[in-house]
Amino acid sequence: MQKADWQTITMGKFTLCIKPYTLEMRHVFTVASFSRTTTPVILTELTYEGVTGYGEASMPPYLGESQESVISFLNKVDLSIFASPFQTEEILSYVDSIQEKNTAAKAALDIALHDLLGKLMGQPFYKIWGLNPAEIPATSFTIGIDSEEMIRKKVAEAEQFKILKVKLGLDTDKMIIDTIRSVTGVPLCADINQGWKSKEQALEMAHWLAERGVVFLEQPMPKEQIEDNAWLTERSPIPTIADEGCQRYTDVTALQGVYSGINIKLMKCTGMREAKKMAELARALKMKVMLGCMTETSCAITAAAQLAPLVDWADLDGALLIGNDIFQGMEVKHGFCYLPDRAGIGLIKETV
């Protein structure tokens, strides 16, 4: 890929470069509602006075965004009205106001801006936020819906991880758990992706899964079934976590009592700024906090990891599921996340 593939937008003292890129999965990735082998992303570079910050928008199917929609949105942004990148709140509030939704597009700019700011200040962003990277919980590794043979293979490949995230929501749920339990006893978290349709089925499965070392349920039923999810949360032996049911900061308060906690993802909530606010609000409401990701390069993963010391559970394996990552950033060793001690979000980037 040549630099000519990048689109350059000049906005006063700011320059924004954007480029489509396709992530290639190491294995076919299957959840309750679809399968895929690739994920489209947009890479962003935001430059101010010779310093460049990196960002990324990842667009899995359910977000409703595409490379074309992200490029279209970013072309509507005009940062020339701002004198300095340190007007962070004003800049990101303006970006959010341009058009509804487009959360991944907004996250691409938010991440690049935070990376730029950290570089201008000469500090990693977790230090700017006053967070201790030693408090980041072990990250889970995702096992997608698959055959018994492939599940055993995936679990073997994930031997270093202290907790596994298991995709459920089809009639193969018990087979998948039994297969995993035949080869490992590590704790599991179950991501149903709205796959269970009745509260009775969900409660029965919650008890069955709890007996087999599952520590929480992620989005057990469709997000629209608010009363059913609240009914389950009240009775479940293990916590319930909202994923599809929790997108942005304005969703959090209404979910108290409906779920035990929330799953924050940069691509859902417009980036690092809002993600941190969501984590702090959930904590104030005595809710559990999970930090998740899409299939992403180490750019967006490392950006999310800056706030990982604030959460109960981390699910930051997105870059490990792809074969063509172009960034070096957060590293996973023996199942634990290690943040680079470099300015900004701490990335080293290959030439693309």
Radius of gyration (Å): 20 Å
Strand content bin: 15-25%
Largest sheet composition:
8 strands, parallel
Helix fraction, binned, reads 25-40%
Strand order of the largest sheet: 5-6-7-8-9-10-11-12
Query: What pattern of helices and strands is seen along the backbone?
Result: EEEEHHHHEHEHEHEHEHEHHEHEEEEE
Structural class: alpha/beta
Low-pLDDT stretches are: none
Shape assignment: globular
Count of individual beta strands: 16
Helices, strands, pairings?
Elements: E1 7-11, E2 14-30, E3 35-48, E4 51-58, H1 67-74, H2 88-97, H3 103-121, H4 125-128, E5 141-143, H5 148-157, E6 164-167, H6 173-181, E7 188-191, H7 199-210, E8 214-218, H8 226-235, E9 240-242, H9 249-252, E10 261-264, H10 266-269, H11 272-284, E11 288-291, H12 298-305, E12 313-314, E13 327-328, E14 331-333, E15 336-338, E16 348-349
Parallel strand pairs: 5-6, 6-7, 7-8, 8-9, 9-10, 10-11, 11-12
Antiparallel strand pairs: 1-2, 2-3, 3-4, 13-16, 14-15
Helix pairs in contact: 1-3, 2-3, 5-6, 7-8
